[in-house]
Amino acid sequence: MDVSIVVPLYNEEESLPELCAWIEKVVTDNLLTYEVILVDDGSTDDSWTKVEELSNANPNIKGIRFRRNYGKSAALNEGFKAAQGEVVITMDADMQDSPDEIPGLRNMVINEKYDLVSGWKKKRFDPITKTIPTKFFNSVTSWSSGIKLHDFNCGLKAYRKKVIKSIEVYGEMHRYIPVIAKWAGFRKIGEKVVEHRARKYGTTKFGWERFINGFLDLTTITFVSKFGKRPMHFFGLFGTLCFLIGLGMSIYLIISKFVSVEFGLTNKPGFYIALTAMIIGMQLFLAGFIAELIARNSSERNSYLIESKIGL
């Protein structure tokens, strides 16, 4: 199969028929074999009824339905599990992503050998209250991850099949799929300028809280990617530094006490700072030990991504 198109949706009954008809026209015109996987994230309207009708009319359209709303990351993760196409393309169901971009995205994966191609909505139709925080968020993410993309959160992306079968998306990590893919060893990540269309149906499902959650998720994915299998390297380092700072201050204060009998040990702020630093240092060190014990007992402690094998 040439392409799988994964579409997470939540209360999008109005847009689904038009979106699926547009996708069908594009892939048919380009002679591509395809499947469309519509993932209903617990919609409260008649979205699932529309999915059933579309699937009955076209066997290439498939559906997954959640019992309740779990979020976009969960929808994408289940869609990735079901996808069988050589190239997997994700897009939103609100008609702001254009299916006309499918051939170009697929071409970059197949012919230009990209592992992942992210859409860049260079010209947006969003209010300034959304565009400015988005630019700031993308700049911080690009700087911290080392991935030169302008639009990490664009729903229109294309993946080589082995990428989506090698990663897990959970929580609200869909914003950081390029980061997750990079840490999984897929380093050829590019972007393509894509059309951003004005919203035709419904209302946005995301509020201002996504920016706060986004930075928290970035911290999480950075930590897990770097120290998930070796937590002691993080907690032990900072714990040791903190303990040594506190110990050094304590030794200095004790020596000062012996040198000057008038020097009060417990009435100096430095005494309490040193004591606190030593306690925090020991706690971080113990946290590292506990995290190591948990990691050692994990069923995935020796699970690594293998590109290929010969003679095995």
Q: What would you say the CATH architecture of the largest domain is?
A: Alpha-Beta Complex
Number of domain modules = 2
The low-confidence parts are: 304-312
Q: Determine the strand fraction and express it as a percent band.
A: 5-15%
Task: Count every beta strand, where a strand is a DSSP E run of 2 or more residues.
Answer: 7
Helix % is 40-55%
Biggest pleated sheet: 7 strands, mixed
CATH topology of the largest domain: Spore Coat Polysaccharide Biosynthesis Protein SpsA, Chain A
Shape: elongated
Question: What structural keywords apply?
Answer:
single chain, 312 residues, alpha/beta, Spore Coat Polysaccharide Biosynthesis Protein SpsA, Chain A, 2 domains, 10 helices, elongated, disordered C terminus
Short characterization:
By secondary structure, the chain is of the alpha/beta class. The protein is 48% helix and 12% strand.
Description:
It is a single chain. The chain has 312 residues and is of the alpha/beta class. It folds into 2 domains: 3-227, Spore Coat Polysaccharide Biosynthesis Protein SpsA, Chain A; 232-296. 48% of the residues lie in helices and 12% in strands. The protein has helices spanning 16-29, 47-57, 72-82, 102-110, 128-145, 161-164, 177-183, 209-227, 232-259, 269-296; strands at residues 3-9, 34-40, 61-65, 87-90, 116-120, 157-160, 189-193. Strands 3-2-1-4-6-5-7 form a 7-stranded mixed beta sheet, sandwiched between helices. The protein is elongated and about 90 Å long. Mean pLDDT is 83; it is low at 304-312.
